[in-house]
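Q: Hi! First time asking for a complex rather than a single chain. Here are the components, and I think there are two in total. Is that enough to go on?
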Amino acid sequence: MPVDRAAPALACRDLSVGYGAHIVIRSLSIAFLPGCWTSIVGPNGCGKSTLLRALAGLEPARSGTILLQGRALPSWPRRERARRVAWLAQSSAVTDLTGAEVVALGRFAHSGWLAHRQKEDEATMYRAMMATGSLAWAHRRLSTLSGGERQRLHLARTLAVEASVMLLDEPTTHLDPPHQEDIVRLLREQARGRNVSVVSAIHDLSLALAADRIIVMGYRGLVGHGSIAEALAGDWLSAAFETPVKVIEDRGAHLWRPSLESSSAPC
Amino acid sequence: MSATPPFAVDLGTGSRDALANHRLLVWVICGLAIALLLAFGSLIVGTSSVETSLGWLLRPDADSSVVLWQIRLPRTLGAWLAGALLGLAGGIAQGVFRNPLAEPYLLGTASGAALGVTLSLIAADASFEGLAWAARLGVTGAACLGAAGATLLTVSLTRGVLETRSLLLSGIVVAFLLGSITQLLVLSRPEIWRTMQSFLLGSTGFLSWSSTELLGAALCVSIVPAVLLARGLDALSLGEDTAQSLGLSLPLMRLALLGIVSLASATAVGQVGVVGFVGLIAPHIVRETLSVNHRQLLIGAPLCGGALLQAADLLSRWVIRPSELPVGAVTACVGGSYLIFLLWRRSRRG
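A: Yes, that's all I need. Here is the structure of the assembled complex.
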């Protein structure tokens, strides 16, 4: 199926989301294009997870609309929607299921209740587990694995959906730096190679700045969304964190430099 | 990255799945074999003063064949079926509530059934019409009606929000409320005390062929959809939001599964009274021995629960023979000690 790279895979118009009297996201309008990786950054509790949950249809919109491939998100049939939008929770669940069983659940929207897996499903699961380096734990129970190992299996489950939109809440938590790098490379590859719209909340600023576009959120709402260059030029990060955030450029990569001036304390 | 997996790697359908299925099969065969052994033991052991030996079993005279075919066989078969229903209901409840301490009576089924039985006994005592009415309904019917009413009350108290925590809470409230009404009624009518006691402690003594048929039908009706919905419980074990994002309709699935839990536990309670711990313990034993997804759990737990209640029934007749213990007391002792053992082991593992 040819992908129209100009038509947004997912878009929201005047979206407001909140809990009780507290409005977390106020009239946000943004479009997520196919083949584009967008990262969401901001301080703790600014609403990154809420935005991702709202986009996944897990949090009802107070007002405004979310459009998936031009059609209102709530009007999609459940399984059809689940085939197009994959979501990864912030905390990875501990379960007695084996790795392969968990990844197979990513095929639920395709294979249904009776779980008659086709060759195609098997191949997809295999690719997803290869990509996240979790194939070795296919037959281990999740309750016997470490946090990072579980995280990679849950990522494989998200990949196995083969969705056109991937919404990932902290996909690099629990991972050691080299594996964080692998995951970032994987997200970029999903966007560039498979025309997926990837939206991820990432804490590590250097990794977040490797994305194509960025949404910067502060305590008092949205600071801005746009390209990385725009964000750096406008110093959105400092505004969001309400403290100077220094980013240096090194051979095309943007790196966050903590301002820890070397103290003279002898030790 | 190759598109097709090499033959060396198997993702679960091939040899590995076959191995899991093979282990499940061994488990099923063992479960059935134990049930058969227990049934055989049940035919020999009894409170009535017929001669019990192998020879008697092979060549029963007219009197003892009545004892054998009309009392002991339906009793052990009924005990197995009731235990299987409780095991199944417990397995489902623990999956739906994502809580290893959930049990089949969680929705107030047991207290509702007890109230139903109390009301029918009082009605039978009060007037001739009441007696005729209660006789037509029977203890089973009254228990089932009560259980169904309590479940409906629990679900409606959550105001349609089939959310785990509010369901648990309203289940507890309903159980307390109906339990205290039952106690008030029983206290005001001492003449129904004895019957109520055997119902509340659980008894396999009233099982007949007709109750076996009822239990068997309920087991068939509930186990098939439960196993079909097992994959949903697997998804639910990853968290409610994740399950929803995978394309599952949580409210529908919960409604269906809780319907099965109430049907299974209400039927069992109607036939054997409030037998505790079987539904709680059976899924744990399965998880200990056959580490599992929910399809395997929902096949294993009924087998395990059935054998447990059969064994408890046998023990209840054997320990203080020629007299008999309430079967619920036996399951409470055995189940309680098993739970303590699990807790002790967990604390030792740190």
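A: The first strand of chain A starts at residue 10 and ends at 19. Let me know if you'd like any chain examined more closely.
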